[in-house]
Amino acid sequence: MDIIAWDGDTLVFVEVKARASGMAGTPEEAVDARKQQRLIRIASVFLAGRRGAEPPCRFDVIAIRRNGMRLAIRHLRSAFRADP
Asked: How many domains does the structure of the chain reveal?
């Protein structure tokens, strides 16, 4: 988990992935089902340690691709869900 931040009343858990080339796939492909389950577990532990009612939450991915000196950055809001 790279970033935990508030977006208004929503608690956002963010995973940042970067790739210098497409040989290993896209950055967002690196956040596969296994990685998502790990992030969900981390978020659950974080939420269990908070006081008060559980806020609305979402999971975002920031995908960074580098092509030489240029960066392409995509923010994928609600990239996956914690519920089945």
From this structure: 1
Q: What is the dihedral of CA 36, 84, 75, 13, to 10 degrees?
A: -60
**Segments forming the whole domain that contains residue 10:** 3-80
- Write down the pTM of the prediction: 0.91
Percentage with pLDDT > 90 across the chain: 85
CATH code, domain carrying 48: 3.40.1350.10
